């Protein structure tokens, strides 16, 4: 009897049967597991040189410069700029587009809170767009929502996979809109041979701990446009360019701004450089595991799967499943967790999308309540934004997001899953799927 069939004949663990596994799955922190001597060597090089600042020092090692140039050659971009977070990169990009009061930025309702805060902090207004079966922005809803105030579109390559970026880029060209591509969760992804970040006028990435590679904190942006690049350079620093000696150089009147102080340190640059060189290995491991699981569970009645247009470009950190009802979704997730498909305490290994917090627009209190950092209510109260006075961000604004937040679940796919971990996950899905077949059919 195969392990799978043996499990099928057992009672569900949630009903008192024996679970498929009893040890937690590994924590979902893709790059962290791969930190080794290489990171140590490069970071130590910075410390030994006593030169943690990128622009000058006792013996600057050029780690951030190397990261930027290797990023461009690895992923096929013209300009790259290291920064200190993905959130900062979003803000810098929108500022470089010249977005501000009187403008709206179209953004999907499934994203991360940083996307909304970047828009609001420029003084512009977020305009919500629904998602489609790819769990990324729906190009059809985007076209419906474009209006006279639309200035830019912010798309988000969620959970390791790119959406319909090719179609969205075409829509942006047609309507003369700037496109910002948030690839924080999809470093190394591609769509039809083009890497994540190359569909946008600017693409941004994050190196925070949960991402496909990490330097703890850090981020990067890419663009093919030299003028945008120079604006970003000034904005991420103190508002101005730097000269060959690394000193501020305000002489070029085209690049005089208010900088946000988001330079990348050489320590982060060294970590990120070492991790970038491993990112293909990390994403291949996750993608292979995820697609093995996907293939094995795709015929289970009642379980739907996220649409992925280009599986070869998936980086694999998350498997999204969809259920006929919110109740079925909760029951299924509870049951596979009971079978041992869960991570260590504090991890988010196997959860319903209801537990996914500020990835959903209606879960962001500052957005729903139109909060401001300033006491007079900027940007919501700015006269140029009066057009958006009746915009609502409460649940109910986006039907597909609302439904998926209730009926979908996610399983993170760690970058170090063993074959037996993968077999256990498949066995748990099959065991629960088998027991749920009647229930799921009724719920359909
Ligand atoms: C989609 C998305 N955008 C932006 C960010 C912000 O990145 P950071 O945490 O580096 O500021 C994150 C992650 O945190 C993210 O998931």
**Mind describing the biggest β-sheet?**
7 strands, mixed
Helical content (DSSP H or I, runs of 4+) = 25-40%
Q: What is the H/E order?
A: HHHEHEHEHEHEEEEEHEEHHEEHEHHEH
pLDDT averaged residue by residue: 96
Number of domains: 2
Tally of helical runs:
14
Number of strands: 15
Distance between the termini: 32 Å
What does the overall shape look like? globular
Mind telling me the CATH class of the largest domain? Alpha Beta
Ligand species: pyridoxal-5'-phosphate
* Structural class assignment: alpha/beta
Radius of gyration: 23 Å
**Beta-strand residue percentage:** 5-15%
Q: At CATH's second level, what is the architecture of the largest domain?
A: 3-Layer(aba) Sandwich
Find the CATH superfamily of the largest domain.
Type I PLP-dependent aspartate aminotransferase-like (Major domain)
CATH third-level topology of the largest domain: Aspartate Aminotransferase, domain 2
């Amino acid at each position: 009897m195969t392990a799978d069939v043996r499990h099928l004949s057992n009672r569900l663990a949630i009903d008192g049967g024996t679970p498929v596994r009893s040890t937690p799955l590994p924590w979902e922190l893709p790059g962290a597991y791969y930190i080794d001597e290489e990171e140590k060597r490069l970071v130590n090089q910075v410390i030994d040189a006593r030169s943690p600042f990128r622009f000058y020092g006792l013996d600057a090692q050029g780690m951030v410069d190397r990261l930027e140039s290797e990023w461009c050659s690895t992923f096929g971009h013209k300009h790259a700029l290291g920064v200190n977070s993905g959130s900062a990169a979003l803000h810098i990009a929108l500022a470089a587009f010249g977005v501000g009061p009187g403008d709206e930025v179209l953004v999907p309702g499934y994203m991360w809170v940083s996307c909304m805060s970047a828009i609001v902090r420029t003084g512009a207004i977020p305009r919500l767009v629904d998602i489609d079966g790819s769990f990324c922005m729906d190009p059809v809803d985007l076209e419906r929502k474009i209006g006279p105030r639309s200035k830019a579109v912010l798309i988000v390559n969620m959970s390791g996979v790119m959406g319909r970026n090719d179609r969205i880029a075409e829509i942006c060209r047609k309507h003369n809109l700037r496109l910002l591509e948030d690839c924080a969760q999809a470093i190394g992804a591609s769509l039809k041979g083009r890497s994540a970040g190359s569909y946008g006028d600017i693409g941004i990435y994050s190196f925070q701990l949960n991402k496909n590679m990490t330097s703890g904190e850090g981020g990067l942006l890419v663009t093919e446009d030299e003028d945008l690049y120079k604006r970003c350079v000034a904005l991420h620093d103190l508002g101005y360019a730097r000269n060959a000696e690394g000193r501020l150089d305000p002489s070029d009147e085209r690049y005089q701004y208010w900088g946000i102080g988001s330079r990348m340190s050489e320590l982060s640059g060294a970590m990120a450089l070492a991790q970038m060189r491993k990112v293909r290995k990390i994403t291949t491991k996750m993608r292979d595991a995820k697609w093995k699981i996907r293939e094995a569970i795709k015929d289970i009645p009642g379980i739907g799967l996220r649409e992925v247009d280009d599986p070869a470009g998936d980086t694999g950190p998350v498997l999204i499943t969809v259920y006929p009802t919110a109740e079925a979704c909760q029951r299924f997730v509870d049951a596979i967790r009971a079978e041992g498909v869960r991570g260590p305490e504090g991890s988010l290994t196997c959860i319903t999308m209801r537990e996914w917090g500020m990835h959903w627009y209606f879960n962001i209190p500052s957005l729903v309540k139109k909060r401001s950092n300033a006491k007079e209510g900027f940007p919501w109260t700015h006269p140029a934004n009066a057009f958006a006075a009746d915009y609502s961000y409460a649940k109910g604004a986006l039907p597909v997001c609302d439904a998926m937040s209730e009926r979908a679940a996610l399983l993170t796919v760690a970058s170090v899953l063993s074959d037996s971990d993968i077999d256990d996950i498949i066995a748990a899905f099959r065991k629960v799927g088998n027991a749920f077949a009647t229930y799921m059919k009724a719920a359909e």
